[in-house]
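Bug #77: duplicate submission created two jobs. Keeping one. Sequence:
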Amino acid sequence: MSGAPVASPRGYAHPADATRAASPSDTIFEARGVSLRFGGVQALTDVGFSIRKGELFSIIGPNGAGKTSMVNCISGRYRPTDGKVYFKGQDITGMTPNHRASLGIGRTFQNLALFGHMTVLDNIMVGRHHLLKNNFFTGSLYWLTGARKEELAHRREVEEIIDFLEIQHVRKATAGTLSYGLRKRVELARAIALKPDLILLDEPMAGMNLEEKEDMARYIVDLNEEFGMTVVMIEHDMGVVMDISHRVIVLEFGKKIAEGTPEEVLADPRVKRAYLGEDDEEDEAVAPPPKQEVA
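Kept job's structure:
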């Protein structure tokens, strides 16, 4: 990514102008008219947007706005009732989550999905399974020739991720015994281990204290800049979202109501009403004073 780093109010940094000048050919993901229904419930309605390669892109909105539903449509957990989704120009609407993972889409979950009985190292190694070269037909030859070499290569990659997320001290600990903040980091590590081009982070800072949030925000920015991953993030902490995101879309009742840079989104009156809960100050200012009774 290009552009001079710009310090944000909380001390995170990102190249604020890096993605604004990107050309259409840089688009890594696109949603076209995505709608999603569950029986009589309309979760998403005609949602469309595109994400450029190298962006840190956030999806925000009130509870029940359809944020996780949209991420599930990207990852393949849900298939849109109407509309299409494209990854690197390829229609992936009908593909399974495993197929999308093999193409380079990784994710974390709002609720932790770790194997609690396994070590941190083994949990992260699970994230590498799509990168293994052996199969049913070559299995015997593989174990006689390249198995050990490949395993060492994968372990080196995993150790780099462990160093990056500063979890060396718990690498051999059982995941289920860790604090909530550390388990969140391990889940992020497992998603990174897939080496995705596009990583989906569903509320990566939920339930964390201030210090843990600041650490996670720093990891996400570094992941975007140093690892070169395109990041799509759902997050309720508006301060963090506005500090580190390149672009933001806002959903309300399953519909997109705003899209743009953090500054543009914050200035949108629809966002203030729907997400921030702000009243229209102008209407209040011109409202007539209450009548007073004459004694």
